[in-house]
Design brief:
alpha+beta; Phenylalanyl-tRNA Synthetase, Chain B, domain 3; 6 domains; 7-stranded mixed β-sheet; 42 strands
Length: about 800
């Protein structure tokens, strides 16, 4: 079809319609002084047996030219480079004597003109209908423009010129003209000349074969060779060139077999057998497996289905009878075979993306016609067609009003219908504003109503759709907010000197037993993996602790004894086994610390890496998240030290725990030093977090500070004492910090000393010493009432 546009304009229109044109380039450069000539006479060179004198008519009289090629005959049309002509590479032709005979120019080979055709010893013979005196660069189409399409994977229909023609027709309002496809038939039915048996109908839902006899192998005509070269295909011979040409025309890959080389004249489409080998057309021997679909005769493979043919049935100069294959192969099967052999081909590229089932017949008919015309073949009647495909055009119901609302344009039903019909879709009017659209088989990418909307949008023109700002409130996606929350936690932990640990989500169930978890513990309700790689990964983890302890043990084995580790990952909890529904996936923060603080900082000061390090980090996280009233309630766990563990609670909800590993558990994990671990439920933490804290102005009045030390029973939680201090402070205690914990000879057995720094401040006005002393007395009385013994010290 004629688009009526310049190549550049057409490229821009196609790109705007979603078929990106990456480049527009010329096929060749200018050939000044090279014209078409007719050979009027040929005679021997008087002084050299390997040269001849050619009388060449270029339309301005005959010129005698000395030539070394012998492949031309009187009457042939040839490319004549006159004196002054410039050939590719800057080679200027001059009139000069050659062995005593003046030569008025040169007869050119294809290679001398910049074409990868023939050899340097053969003159390029042009078609007989080429006008004498015409410019050779125009005859060869050197001024043709080639559009390089950068197709997305879903547009397999544009891997053939026919599919591109439908696109251009839709953009320009032109009509697609199908090439001639009705070959003359003669002789016996094709089914009597070849037997086809498809063993695997899933991997090959359709296989067709045509038989052409009395083939004459030779070069294809120049016009076909040039078109193939413009598509990047190397011409070989007329039969192979025709199958390649038709593939580029229709998008349907084809393959020609020498029928006389097929044992018993039989084709089997089957999976390869173990141990079978095939030498493909590139000369490489391929070791086949049962995953490979092959084309075979009665005794051996003769081709990798949809990828490449075999050398054992290759078309050669002795071929007289060919069988042409056109089929539909499973895309996944072709992709797997092509990848495994690192053997991408033009055919496999098309099969991998999915081909038009209708093109199977088009390709066969077109190929048979061209073989009868260009290879003097006799086409046997009919074709063998093993068709198990259920592919049919499908229909979609669309509304012009809905299309307009989605795109933000005013478009009526007649405009929608016209745009789709120009693309080759069939549109049937339905009730009111509705249409039924029948999608052609070549457009397998159009499956739902939204695909029709996209087609209308790109044909209508994206540049014509007005720009409109979105309206309404943008609601943040919860999943993205949770991921940002996790990232913020990681930032806090990293800034506190922790290192992130990433462990497998699969564990060995024995690791849970090494934690001394009882059988009725929820952590033992793990989900087994049906086909585990090994026993070490045979269950979904219910806790992050095993992975953290493995990391601690590994690092200790390399003398890295001081460690602050954390992991943000998921644990998997089943309500019951066997599973009846999808198990809960709980995002969790896990921490493990041991040794001493390797790099003290503002969050984690110097000292031992113990319970209070993790407690301090959690308090920093709670402050950053706007979470208040968190308590650390003493509670022993199966795997923790009975006097050094606590539940982390917000009101009455348990967020997680902190606990030093029980010595027996540490020994079971082959760790020789104290380790403190913690796990926090991040889903619950996210729910109660206040990511945007309310603004509080800086204090306008000075603060007063007092220190206080008390002796209490070891089982009294420091947080409970801090709460008592705040409650007794009449609302004027702004901060309570535990700055010292001491157990020793000066302290009675079963007791410990806790020292607090208390900050007093009033929002309006400065507190006097007398007011602070009165409040401090109330605090001391409240602590004594709780059973604390004061340690009198000067502040």
């Amino acid at each position: 079809m004629d688009p009526g546009l310049s190549p550049q304009e057409l490229g821009e229109r196609m790109t705007m319609a979603g078929i990106e044109v990456g480049a527009v380039e010329s096929f060749g450069g200018p050939l000044p002084g090279v014209v078409v000539g007719r050979v009027r006479g040929i005679k021997p060179h008087p002084g050299r047996d390997n040269l001849v004198l050619v009388d060449a008519d270029t339309g301005e009289g005959c010129q005698e030219i000395v030539c070394g090629a012998k492949n031309m005959a009187v009457g042939d049309k040839v490319a004549v480079a006159r004196p002054g002509a410039i050939l590719p590479g800057g080679w200027e032709i001059k009139a000069r004597p050659i062995y005593g005979v003046a030569s008025a120019g040169m007869l050119c080979s294809a290679r001398e003109l910049g074409l990868e055709l023939g050899s340097d010893e053969e003159i390029l013979i042009l078609d007989q209908d080429t006008p004498v005196g015409g410019k050779v660069e125009e005859v060869l189409g050197f001024d043709d423009r080639i559009l390089y399409l950068e197709l997305t994977p879903n547009r397999a229909d544009c891997l053939g010129m026919l599919g591109v023609a439908y696109e251009v027709a839709a953009l320009t309002g032109g009509k697609v003209k199908m090439p001639p496809m009705n070959p003359p038939e003669t002789g016996i039915p094709a089914a009597d000349a070849v037997i086809v048996d498809v063993h695997d109908r899933i991997l090959c839902p359709r296989y067709t074969a045509r038989v052409i006899r009395d083939i004459r192998i030779g070069p294809s005509p120049l016009w076909m060779q040039l078109r193939l070269m413009k598509a990047g295909v190397r011409p070989i011979n007329n039969v192979v060139d025709i199958t390649n040409y038709v593939m580029w025309e229709t998008g349907q890959p084809l393959h020609a077999f020498d029928l006389q080389l097929l044992k018993e004249r039989r084709i089997l489409v089957r999976r390869a057998k173990s141990g079978e080998k095939l030498v493909t057309l590139d000369g490489m021997e391929r070791q086949l497996t049962a995953e490979d679909l092959v084309i075979a005769d009665s005794s051996k493979p003769v081709g990798l289905a949809g990828v490449m043919g075999g050398e054992n049935t290759e078309i050669n100069e002795k071929t007289r009878e060919v069988m042409v294959e056109a089929a539909v192969f499973n895309p996944t099967s072709i992709r797997r075979t092509a990848r495994r052999f690192s053997l991408p081909s033009e055919a496999s590229q098309r099969f991998e993306r999915g081909i038009n089932p209708e093109a199977v017949i088009w390709g066969q008919e077109r190929t048979a016609l061209l073989l009868s015309q260009l290879a003097e073949g006799q086409v046997l009647r009919g074709m063998v067609d093993q068709n198990y495909s259920t592919a049919e055009p499908h229909r979609l119901t669309v509304s012009a009003d809905r299309i307009g609302r989605i795109l933000g344009i005013n478009i009526n039903g007649s405009e929608v219908s016209a745009l789709l019909e120009n693309l080759g879709f069939s549109v049937y009017a339905s009730e009111d504003d509705l249409f039924e659209v029948e999608v052609p088989l070549r457009r397998a990418d159009v499956k739902i109503e939204e695909d029709i909307v996209e087609e209308v949008a790109r044909l209508y023109g994206y540049d014509r759709i007005p720009l409109t700002l979105p309206r309404g409130e943008l609601i943040e996606n919860r999943e993205k907010a949770e991921e940002r929350f996790k990232d913020a936690l990681k930032d806090i932990l990293v800034s506190a000197g922790f290192y992130e640990c990433i462990a497998y989500s699969f564990i060995n169930p024995s690791s849970l037993r090494r934690l001394r978890l009882p059988e009725n513990d929820p952590g033992m309700n793990y989900i087994p993996v049906r086909n585990p790689f090994s026993e070490e990964q045979s269950a979904m983890r219910t806790t992050l602790v095993p992975g953290l302890l493995k990391a601690v043990r590994h690092n200790c084995s390399f003398s890295e004894l001081n460690q602050l580790l954390f992991e943000v990952g998921s644990v998997y909890m089943a309500d019951s086994l066997p599973l009846e529904e999808i198990p809960a996936e709980k995002p969790t923060l896990g921490m493990a610390v041991t040794g001493v603080i390797p790099e003290p900082n503002w969050v984690v000061p110097s000292g031992e890496a113990d319970f209070f390090v993790i407690k301090g980090v959690l308090e920093a996280i709670f402050r950053r998240s706007g979470i208040e009233e968190v308590k650390f309630v003493p509670q022993a766990l199966p795997f923790t030290h009975p006097a050094r563990s606590a539940l982390v609670k917000w009101h009455d909800q348990a967020l997680g725990y902190i606990g030093q590993l029980h010595p027996d558990v540490a020994e079971a994990w082959e760790i020789d030093q104290p380790v403190t671990v913690s796990e926090i439920d991040l889903t619950m933490l996210f729910e109660i977090a206040k990511p945007v804290p309310s603004f509080k102005p800086l204090p306008r009045y000075p603060a007063a500070k007092r220190d206080l030390a008390v002796i209490v029973d070891r089982n009294v939680a420091s947080e409970d004492l801090a709460r008592t201090i705040r409650e007794a402070g009449r609302g004027l205690v702004s901060r309570v910090i535990l700055f010292d914990l001491f157990e020793g000879k000066q302290i009675p057995a079963g007791k410990r000393s806790l020292a607090y720094s208390i900050t007093f401040r009033r929002d309006e006005g400065t507190l006097t010493d007398e007011e602070v002393n009165l409040i401090f007395d109330d605090i001391e009385k409240a602590l004594i009432k709780c059973g604390a013994v004061l340690r009198k010290q000067e502040s």
